[in-house]
Amino acid sequence: MTDPKFIRNFAIIAHINHGKSTLADRLLEVTGTVDKRDLEEQMLDSNPIERQRGITIKLAPVRMEYSYKGSKYILNLIDTPGHVDFSYEVSRALAACEGVILVVDGVTGIQAQTVANFNIVANQNLKVIPVINKIDLSSADPDRVKKQLIRDFGFSENEIINISAKKGHNINTVIEKIIETIPPPQGILNNFRALVFSSQYDHHLGVIVYVRIKDGQLAYPETGKAGMALKFMATGAVFSPMEIGVFKPEKTIKDKISLGEVGYIATGLKTISLAQVGDTIMEESGSVKPIPGFIKPKPFVYLSLFPTDNDDYNQLRESLLKLELSDSSLTITPHANAALGKGFLCGFLGLLHAEITKERLFNEFNQNIVATMPTVEYVVKTRKNSLIKIKSAEDFPDPVNINQVTEPVMFCRIFLPVIYLGNVIQLCQEKRAKFIDLQYIGEQAKLEYFIPLAEMIIDFFDKLKSASSGYASLDYEYYEHQEVNAVKLRVFLNGKEAEAFSQITVREKAPAVAVNLVERLKNLIPRHQFRIAIQAAVNNKIIARADIGVLRKDVTAKLYGGDRTRKDKLLEAQKKGKKKMRQIGSVEVPQEVFLKIHRIN
């Protein structure tokens, strides 16, 4: 058993692209955990999408060893995601640590996610080592960033370390600071208790949970003997470990993992939902308190996914089920659409989570899919005081049965240069945002708003980058559901409702949304032998209309002279025929129209 006083558990937190993964690479190199010949960039980012995007989307632990002042220390690093969509996973990873390295870009300074991560750390009373990265760049201004850290976070000047993760400058200083200032883990040697901070699925070993041992120890069972029976406190699932070990950085089997250590347990379970992030593992016969902070991750953004070919439905289903094995926060529900056929309504933590899932479906399973426009979960209170959760327009009830509608609202922090302040404030006002606070931090400004999630998931991020020339950064978290005057926008083609084009919007924006929708349909639906009326309505009141002109057939082409009355007679007969077709004719809408209307730009 390793003496806990020689163990240090820490994480690296940073805003996106501030150099978190690069610093992790240098720590692996300096400690000799990975041979320099085998080291590659973003070593802990194993997913190809992580390398392609340059971000961490799945946390990765690694065990390093370092000799300092005659003693050998075990340094357990948990490389956490940097995007706000995975903030709960970050908070659980931090619960497995006693300290963190806070990395700040020496060029851009403090950003939105820097503040959000620091607030999480402050709430958990972790030791923070502030680090200014990229000091090797000519555009870096570490003195300015150092003043920001002192002013905004209360650090003293001698706490802050200037480094270049890319060049390896001052990395040993960071390691020695970890050993000297981050406290060793505390706990008791009996009553086994472990925190689950991540999980994955293996076809042979079942669900593998990544754990931090909070109390006691777990030994690998001897050959022919049953191992200790364990259970998850939140789900009640019972199992006997098939394998235990640590990360170096690949999984390495050990005979025992004990108090303070970070490792993994192969449970043999075949359902990953039984092993939820934040849950506590204990002895089946034991009696201990759960580790605080566990919540079940809740989807905030919903997309309907359909195969481009209906014959591929079963393949898409199998692909999503396989993804669900490695991503417990993904929810999948069968869903049917009159236009697009059979598919699935999927819940995601945020837009990035949705984008990554779609990319994985294509890259890993070769699935070509149609994704509808993202929606949020509305809660409808009916006249009978029952609550209905609405995730798509098809489920929106009749207005006469609605007493109240609420929508999710996010608390947002936006950091940006002062010169772009007017543009961003105007954008927020267009998005129904409610102003909270404005603070000036040197040449930077910090805006705080309440913004409806429905306004954020369409084009808010792109418009924010455009309004700030790419310099604004955003952090957000769920605040509450607030009342909204939401309505269902219905579409009619020649008086017949086309349910596939309906959508939920706020009443004040309904006219503009309706005009845009009917104009798009007018340009996409091909002309017929009769005029087509496209109408958008709210509560049976038409608020927008567009007409598709007649596809005119030249019925007089066969004439080559003669009396004019012969031509007029043919044209009159065509006119009467078109009028009849308009009354009884069916509008044919090609599949491509639905794909283009529903597809996310």
UniProtKB/TrEMBL annotation:
Enzyme Commission identifier(s): 3.6.5.n1
Transmembrane annotation, as ranges: none
Top EC class, one word: hydrolase
GO molecular function, one term: GTPase activity
Reactions that this protein is recorded to catalyse: GTP + H2O = GDP + phosphate + H(+)
Positions with a binding annotation for GTP: N17, H18, G19, K20, S21, T22, N133, K134, I135, D136
Homology family: Belongs to the TRAFAC class translation factor GTPase superfamily. Classic translation factor GTPase family. LepA subfamily.
Primary role: Required for accurate and efficient protein synthesis under certain stress conditions. May act as a fidelity factor of the translation reaction, by catalyzing a one-codon backward translocation of tRNAs on improperly translocated ribosomes. Back-translocation proceeds from a post-translocation (POST) complex to a pre-translocation (PRE) complex, thus giving elongation factor G a second chance to translocate the tRNAs correctly. Binds to ribosomes in a GTP-dependent manner.
UniProt name for this protein: Elongation factor 4
Lineage, opening ranks: Bacteria, Candidatus Gottesmaniibacteriota
